[in-house]
């Protein structure tokens, strides 16, 4: 299916409506990232006001991650089958209502429930929004430009959330919950008018109900297990049993998908080395950054005594660099290709994380911290848009939602998994009643793990550099009738 807006974009000119469509989708992605980063700084105030224990308070964050990461696969395929516009707008409306309720509740369980619902709605808006872009803008320079702007909004939202949370929490933590509601409502009204109408997939072979149930259950259990593992213990019977159950569910899911006429995930998509590198790269990229931000935030506030706003401003150069480069990345991708940019970005991340190992209890910001922030900001500007472009290139329109959901799942699962690993490493090296210097020393193994994750992302990307960039070069399996064998088509990496 081709969007009616594609014609104007194919000539290189973006009409006002096309810009409006992109802005609506960017607003939703901006809100997703904004919501994730804003709540972190507000947690101490929330716990004090609602009398929540530390174990309960962490579910204000984990509840969102659970709903988001657990339902992305279902959200992506639902957008393909039921219509991307419809799914996006309904989920955006739910997000707005949940934001409003989250700012008004007066109990911990209700706040956690509202966060779970927000994560659930984001699990539908994220893949639907990305697939609307990839089916509206034709593959090539125009789509690359649109995706670079779109992914930049996510990074900008994450950075702005840190600053806004510091300001809003000074007045009331409830404002951090309420702020997304009016923005979501404005985007919803604009989306009703601007978003292109999309048809439901007509040629699908029914709904993969067993795959949806097993796939969603496996993702929910995986995210839940990873989030709870640091507290329960990685080697505890509870954690090991949960991971075993996840492995069983994933095995059943693969068997169901191989036999389904209309699978939730067509496994043939993963025959592409380019696709696999994009998915694993997304896990390494977001996992390393979330782990880094977690450690640096604690370092700045607990050891250096910086305020929430001061800490947020320290991260600001990275976000500002991403925002400034938003319109340039698409052209760079056109010239050099995604593998080169992803490799270059991961190399910058490795250097940026490694440089942060030099910090002390009395660092000079310009000399010790700013270089890492600038390198990491440049890396984010290169890696995140390129991963989105690489994952969605060469995929048929009717499967864009599926691939978008898969990519977002990789991002969220990578973030939850590696943050838990980094937390466990730091906790294991922190002695009781430690001096500030001993606490700082306990952070260094965590920073080494973060650097190692980024290095793994670089190594995963390197095989893609051998791919020739002449015309269309990466083989991606396409779907054919069930009785037929898979054929291959060449697509640009």
Automatic annotation (TrEMBL):
Protein name: MFS transporter
PANTHER family, sorted: BLR6921 PROTEIN, MAJOR FACILITATOR SUPERFAMILY MULTIDRUG TRANSPORTER MFSC
PROSITE patterns in UniProt: MFS, SUGAR_TRANSPORT_1
UniProt membrane topology term: Multi-pass membrane protein
InterPro entries, per database record: MFS, MFS_dom, MFS_trans_sf, Sugar_transporter_CS
Span of the signal peptide: none
Compartment annotation: Cell membrane
Domain of life of the organism encoding this protein: Bacteria
Originating organism: Streptomyces lannensis
Keyword field: Antibiotic resistance, Cell membrane, Membrane, Transmembrane, Transmembrane helix, Transport
Major facilitator superfamily (MFS) profile domain segment(s): 21-469
Pfam families attached to this UniProt entry: MFS_1 (PF07690)
Transmembrane segments: 21-44, 56-75, 87-105, 117-137, 149-169, 175-195, 207-227, 239-257, 278-300, 306-329, 341-359, 365-384, 405-426, 446-465
